[in-house]
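Entry 14. Ran structure prediction on the chain below.
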Amino acid sequence: MNKIKYLILLMLFLSFSAAEIKIGYVDSNEIMSKFEEVRQVQVDLEKEQRRLESEFNSLVTQLDSLQQDYERQRLLMSETRRQEKENEIINMKKSAEEFQLKKFGPEGEIYRKQNELLKPVLSKIDDAIQKVGNEQGYDFILDAMSGALLYALDSHNLTEDVMDELNKATGSVAE
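Output, structure tokens:
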């Protein structure tokens, strides 16, 4: 599917201009797997993930222990004491779920840490792509894996032309 996107983009670029366009591509997966700084980020993230998993497992162990104690002693407890223990178990379950979401959820600590560690590395990769594009005279550089545009000459940016056309069509003026 990615190769199809790449071919379609290539054909579009070629059809828009009679001038020769120099198009290149990079394999972002290969860059990410071979660049040592990315590997170091992965090692650091794995350490952090193991630490957080250890904390979570500790919470789960405490919860299991609390539940086992409750089940063993439940028949001997007063109604009030039973209710207190059940509430304690419910609260501990909530705490474990909140911990898991806070640390491993979609916007959790592990993902923030990943973004924090990867940001400077991705910036270096982007700088290298920009430098190669400029020095070797490429008009466009695509990512072979996603078909995303990673580099383009400013002269190919049609955003302002499209905005002008939209403003003409709607009769409004851009700020």
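Residues 163 and 174 are 8 Å apart (CA to CA). Will compare against last week's run tomorrow.
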